[in-house]
Amino acid sequence: MAQPTQTDKTPVVAFSDDTTKDIQQISDSLHAKQLPKHGMGRAKDILPFLPFSKTTLFEWSKDGRFPAGKKLSPTMTAWSYAEVHEWLNSHTSTTSEV
Q: Is there a contact between 40 and 70 (Cβ–Cβ < 8 Å)?
């Protein structure tokens, strides 16, 4: 059985002497999603950053355990990114357990 040969010797990620630049290029290519700090987002925008479901989001917003959403229309609700960040920061563990 013949051994596979590699005809293209170019690495998948071509590194240069400037690793900072390389890391930035890789980071830019990954399109890392982050929760914006300003503005407003709908449930679909903030749920990837929350440890609960859409149902819980609406229930907790209604009973005060999560910041209340703002009704933009009868069928559209949005949350302040700043308030979501504040809630996340207040519910993040500040202790490190080993």
A: yes
